[in-house]
Amino acid sequence: MRTALTIAGSDSSGGAGIQADIKTMMANGVYAMSAITALTAQNTTGVTAIMEATEEFLGEELDNIFTDIFPDAVKIGMVSSSGLIIKIAEKLKEYDAKNIVVDPVMVATSGARLISEDAVSTLKEYLFPLAQILTPNIPEAEVLSGMSITSEEEMIRAAKVIGEQYGCAVLLKGGHKVNDANDLLYHEGTCQWFYGKRIDNPNTHGTGCTLSSAIASNLAKGFPMDVSVERAKAYISGALAAMLDLGKGSGPMNHGFAITGEYAKEVQDHE
Fold first, then answer.
1. Lowest CB count within 10 Å: 67, 108, 125, 226, which one?
2. pLDDT tens-digit series, residues 83-133
3. pLDDT digit string (tens) for 50-86?
4. Which listed residue (207, 210, 221, 233) is catalytic?
5. Between residues 27 and 179, which one has the greater pLDDT?
């Protein structure tokens, strides 16, 4: 069985972060492991508290994973402090980690900045050069490219700028009023559009985490970059189309929409 590691924060409500990543990896047929960067107290309406791991403890988590069950792919989500970013980069280099997917979580869907300028510069210097692929949304791509992005042509220019700067593939996610659900992959000097159907589901908590984890899962299984993105897009579309409706805010998706069988039965099914 192929294996994947998520390095991210815990979401106590289960819709994003480590919990979404593990659910996604399992649904995509790989064995999931985690190194937790922070605990968060949150639900579908927001985050009320954050407690970060120490650099030493995060290093211990990574040492234990890489020296025992070596991951075939690594997904990195929200890491909010420079010290933790540097520790992750050190360990990825020490163990020569493969298939690194970085979801550069910097700007919330609302437009609010989630990490400091200092941490952004540390991400750029230490972590992005190790990535096989970055998966920014449009506000994050604007930060990384220094460009305003208001059209598909500007998406292409920004993806090229980011990809060439860090020597990796870039999946620039649409939405944010530029287009509906169309994402742009810049990979090895070429651009490829992935056209998605806009699903009218207000419950989108954890979509970024889920997409990047699905890409990592497919890279772990040996699919090429473009096929990994295509399969990940199909998976997230299915999870959204299942129309799960939980919580009082922007709720989670149904990560297990395609998991069926004996152990998923309800009481009435069993009877």
1. 67
2. 999 999 999 999 999 999 999 988 665 556 667 788 889 999 999 999 999
3. 899 999 999 999 999 999 999 999 999 989 899 999 9
4. 207
5. 27
Tell which wins on pLDDT, 42 or 130: 130
| Annotation marks residue 206 as catalytic | yes
Above 70 in pLDDT, residue 179? no
Q: Which of 208, 210, 221, 233 does the annotation list as catalytic? A: 208
Among 14, 23, 209, 221, which one carries the catalytic annotation? Answer: 209
Is 124 catalytic? The answer is no
Tell me, yes or no, if 168 is annotated catalytic. no
* Catalytic-role residue among 204, 210, 221, 233: 204
Catalytic residue from among 59, 77, 206, 251: 206
- Is 208 among the residues known to form the active site? yes
Task: Answer whether 35's CB lies under 8 Å from 254's CB.
Answer: no
Annotated catalytic residue 209: yes
Active-site residue flag, 59? no
Say how far apart CA 253 and CA 237 lie, in whole Å. 10
